[in-house]
Design a protein that fits this description.
Blueprint lengths: L5 E8 L6 H13 L3 E10 L5 E5 L14 H4 L6 H7 L7 E9 L2 H11 L12 H19 L1
Antiparallel strand pairs: 1-4, 2-3, 2-4
């Protein structure tokens, strides 16, 4: 089985609590079949900077059921080195959820490109900062039009 392109997201959570709304959204994303959650790790960076890692499978018996179909797709791809790298920017005494997504929708696009004689050269994600800047510009333009 080939994997599609992978993307990670690190989400800070308060008091090691992942809300029901967040879990429901992850399930919804997974159920679309366009993007699949292939790894889900809970991390806490303690005061001395040490990272404590907890996988969904390590939760008590009752909690994994809350994650529905996501649990079946988890592959354990993230290594401890990956986790250390991805959590380097989070402050001490903070908990986070590290999610690894597979972009399965790209399989169809890549196949269509190949059949048409093309090739996918590269891809990437636009940074959060760049998106925030564009959003600010769009909002300013909208306000100027409405003035």
């Amino acid at each position: 089985m080939d994997l599609g392109p992978l993307e990670y997201v690190v989400i800070g959570v308060k008091d090691q609590i992942v809300t029901h709304a967040l879990v429901e959204e992850l399930i919804t994303i997974n159920e679309t079949g366009k993007v699949r959650v292939v790894d889900l790790i809970f991390v806490t960076k303690v005061a001395d900077g040490t990272i404590v890692v907890k996988e969904v499978s390590e939760l008590c018996e009752k909690e994994p059921a809350l994650y529905g179909c996501i649990v079946d797709d988890l592959m354990g791809l993230l290594t401890i080195q990956d986790i250390e790298h991805l959590t380097a920017q989070i402050p001490s005494d903070t908990s986070a959820l590290v999610i690894l997504f597979e972009h399965t929708w790209l399989f169809g696009l890549t196949e269509a490109v190949r059949k048409s004689g093309g090739v996918v050269f590269t891809g990437g994600m636009v940074s959060h900062e760049a998106i925030a800047h564009v959003n600010a510009e769009l909002n300013a333009t909208k306000e100027a039009r409405n003035a």
